[in-house]
Request: fold
Amino acid sequence: MRRYADVLLADAIGVPLMYVLAMGIGLGSLLTGNGSLFDGVPYLVFIAPALLISAAVSAGVTEGTFPVMDGFKWHRLYQGPLVTPITPHQIAQGQILAVSLRMMVQTVLFLGVVGLFGAVHSWWALVAIPLSALAGLAMGLPIMAYSATIREEKGQFSIIMRFIFTPLFLFSGTFYPLMNLPIFLQWIGWISPIWHGTELARALMYGHFVPAWLALVHVLVLAALAALGFALVRRNFARRLGGIK
Reply:
């Protein structure tokens, strides 16, 4: 990641800043110009947790696609450690750890940016740092496991971004409450790590009400998806790198 650290830093600061200005303040001024509120708070406060989780999930998906392909095929970064006692399982876990750290650092910077605009109302927002990593892993790890099986890149990753991540981003209660969608579209949010993470982040950042049982469901869904992805990544890395040592 050191090769593109400047890009990561610009993305971690620039993306939230642009979204805050364009959506939170720009669009928000139109939506709440008459004094109306979203979930009892200004639109910027409402949208900031969703953008934070979406950014982490986007990072998880991004790191689970081309960088994994690069490690196996292009620069073959995973081959070097194989001549040491490091196992394919440990290589997989190292990749996951690196991605997790990237998402948490990005979330810290994101919170700093939106906090400057008054979109953070509670110290509980700090819990959103590990939460964002969990949400990112919930979607990023299954994709990373899939990437570990690809021998030739023929547009699969573009399909993932356009037809999986983008619809989930748009229909996961990111810009408006999920209940505002027709019932036949709400299922998209129910299966989306972005929605589950966003609901919890809103509760942490400004006190959005989430019943205890539903909060538990959100956590369990994210944890289950991340655990499944973790197991699949370890298995597929071991198979791709020539078996388990």
